[in-house]
Write a structure and sequence with these properties.
Layout lengths: L4 H20 L5 E4 L20 H7 L5 E5 L1 E3 L19 E2 L5 E6 L16 E4 L16 E4 L9 E3 L2 E3 L2 E2 L5 E3 L2 E3 L7 E4 L2 E5 L2 E3 L2 E4 L3 E4 L2 E5 L2 E3 L2 E5 L3 E4 L2 E5 L2 E3 L2 E2 L6 E4 L4 E4 L2 E3 L2 E2 L14 E4 L2 E5 L2 E3 L2 E5 L3 E4 L2 E5 L2 E3 L2 E4 L3 E4 L2 E5 L2 E3 L13 E3 L6 E5 L2 E2 L21 E2 L78 E3 L6 E5 L4 E8 L4 E5 L3 E3 L6 E9 L3 E8 L1
Parallel strand pairs: 1-2, 2-5, 3-6, 4-7, 5-8, 6-9, 7-13, 8-14, 9-15, 10-16, 13-17, 14-18, 15-19, 16-20, 17-21, 18-22, 19-23, 20-24, 21-25, 22-26, 23-27, 24-28, 25-29, 26-30, 27-31, 28-32, 29-33, 30-34, 31-35, 32-36, 33-37, 34-38, 35-39, 37-40, 38-41, 42-43
Antiparallel strand pairs: 11-12, 44-45, 45-48, 46-47, 46-49, 49-50
Length: 566
């Protein structure tokens, strides 16, 4: 089995928060909001008595309650202290009470969360106060949560579109004993607690820090969101997480801008942060010099703390300075099974490091640019005066091995088993979304061809148990974010003249295909490789009875099937 402590710890964080929310809501109420309602009636516990005032329903809620919000556009009407006419109208926000879950995406008739359709029932939380279309009078934070520093439970925000926040203020607010900066988190600003931010579209927000999302301390899960076209005038164009333990997973983070560090993600002083299974593309960080410093991290910037960055795709992110794809500054970091493609930076187009300790394993660095894609430092560069201590295992680098030297500030220090100047064999790099137009599926353009050098070349230690699509990694993992595997099923399969038979089998398992077999591998149910052959007849007589997995690589496809040994 894979040695994957960090991945399992991240999953434990997720399961704990899900258990927390699920256990709370056993005896809770569901309250309803509908922008089209004209006759809301407390306690708002049915669609027929729904209020059109979201904040009023939030204020009526108790710990463990869910709030279901029907499609429509909602504007904040009160500041965090309940004032409808605060001295600064931009302090108006949707201020969440501790321990509640707020869901958008309903039509107004549903009886179950699973009935809602968030893509059809757009529920917009808008900070566009005052003159519509004028940003200077927009609210500082569209959504705000400020939990008690020692006893906060946390909140869940799921299924909304959140736009038009503008966090460019001066004096900070003190909310529930915490400083809430008017310069950060124009869309979402969460302080303390165990929080989940999921299934939202967060766009067209602007602030000094955390253009889309800003969190401070707490345990935060940021998952399955699309975060795009946000801007930070300093750091964290898309997401900014400060301290705490944060899991940022399964998001599509694109086209965000940070003048300073972290165009896509900015993570500082976190403990065991996990950044996984995200598509991070076309973000810009390190746009200009600030306070005599140069910045970077077009896709991801981390500073100090401990971070695991795995199973992500980073492509076409840019920095005018350091680390077009990733910039690691201090800290203890693991960078594992990522595909880092066509990012641009003047020092380390793909990857830049500055002090700290970094374990870099099973990654693809390809097509990254530092002036050109064939110049030393195009894919990786270490700081010349304050270098990090980096350890490289089983990566694919885009340049000849002789280009990685101390003189070029990109030495690999002699670590073995890296591959140089070998095309990784992407399926269709010109079409990252693939034929189905959906990211994180098996036809994605940066997934692998059957003859890729990346297949089974990864190191097992620390490798994730699955890939960016959720496909199980068997045996030695493939390098990069994608594992080249097919769909599993216990039956004889006939697809494009491919089948295995008999199934169940006793002594010999036959493979029938019109394609040339490049490799046939048998794994036990724990994922251990127990046989490899190029023959169409696989001898299995010595196997113990049970279920096994056959992985067949041909010239044109790869198919994975379960079979039973009698």
């Amino acid at each position: 089995m894979h040695d994957n402590y960090e991945h399992n710890q991240g999953m434990k964080n997720i399961y704990f928060l899900l258990f927390l929310f699920n256990s709370i809501v056993v005896s809770s109420a569901v309250r309803y909001v509908n922008a089209n309602s004209n006759s809301g009636s407390a306690p708002y516990t049915s669609w027929s008595t729904a209020s059109n005032d979201l904040q009023a329903v939030i204020n009526s809620s108790q710990i463990g309650d869910e709030i279901w919000v029907a499609s429509g556009t909602y504007f904040p009407t009160r500041d965090p202290f309940g004032n409808t006419f605060p001295s600064d109208s931009r302090d108006k926000t949707f201020y969440l009470k501790d321990g509640i879950s707020v869901y958008g995406g309903f039509s107004g008739t549903e009886t179950s969360l699973t009935d809602r359709d968030t893509s059809s029932n757009i529920t917009l939380l808008s900070g566009d106060l005052g003159v519509l279309g004028t940003v200077n009078d927009n609210c500082y934070h569209v959504v705000l949560f400020s939990g008690n520093s020692t006893s906060a439970i946390g909140v869940k925000l799921d299924g909304f579109s959140i736009a038009n926040g503008f966090a460019m203020g001066t004096v900070n607010n003190n909310v529930n004993g915490n400083v809430a900066s008017r310069l950060a988190g124009p869309a979402i600003y969460f302080i303390n607690g165990n929080n989940i931010i999921s299934n939202n579209k967060i766009y067209m927000n602007s602030g000094y820090s955390g253009g889309g999302i800003y969190t401070s301390t707490g345990n935060n899960i940021i998952s399955d969101n699309e975060i795009y076209n946000n801007k930070a005038h300093y750091d964290g164009g898309g997401v900014s997480v400060f301290k705490g333990t944060n899991t940022i997973t399964n998001n599509y983070i694109h086209d965000n801008i940070a003048t300073g560090d972290g165009g896509g993600i900015y993570a500082v002083l976190g403990v065991d942060n996990i950044i996984s299974k995200n598509i991070i593309d076309k973000n810009k960080g390190g746009i200009s010099q600030i306070d005599t410093y140069y910045y970077g991290g077009g896709g991801i910037y981390t500073e100090k703390g401990s971070n695991i960055i795995l199973n992500n795709v980073l492509y076409e992110n840019t920095s005018n300075y350091m680390g077009g794809g990733i910039f690691l500054y201090y800290g203890q970091n693991k960078v594992i099974n990522n595909t880092i493609y066509k990012n641009t930076g003047t020092r380390g187009g793909g990857f830049f490091t500055y002090l700290g300790n970094n374990f870099v394993k099973n990654n693809i660095f390809w097509g990254n640019i530092n002036g050109t894609d064939s110049q030393p430092g195009a894919d990786y560069k270490n700081h010349d005066d304050w270098p990090a201590e980096n350890y490289f295992y089983n990566n694919i680098f885009q340049l000849p091995s002789g280009f990685y030297t101390s003189a070029n500030q990109n030495s690999l220090y002699g670590y073995p088993n890296n591959i140089f100047q070998t095309n990784p064999g992407f399926k269709d790099a010109a079409n990252v979304f693939g034929a189905d137009g959906i990211l994180r599926t098996s036809d994605d353009g940066l997934s692998l061809l059957p003859n890729s050098v990346a297949i089974n070349y990864g190191q097992l230690t620390d490798a994730p148990t699955d890939d960016i699509t959720g496909m199980t990694r068997l045996g030695n993992p493939d390098v990069g974010a994608y594992e080249l595997m097919g769909n599993l099923g216990i039956k004889e399969l006939k697809i494009d003249q491919f089948r295995i038979y008999p199934n169940p089998a006793k002594d010999v398992l036959n493979i029938q295909t019109n394609d040339k077999i490049l490799k046939a591998e048998v794994f036990n149910i724990s994922g251990q490789l127990i046989k490899s052959t190029k023959e169409s007849k696989v001898e299995i007589s010595v196997f113990l009875p049970g279920t096994y997995i056959l992985n067949v690589v041909t010239e044109n496809k790869i198919i994975t099937e379960k079979f039973i040994k009698k």
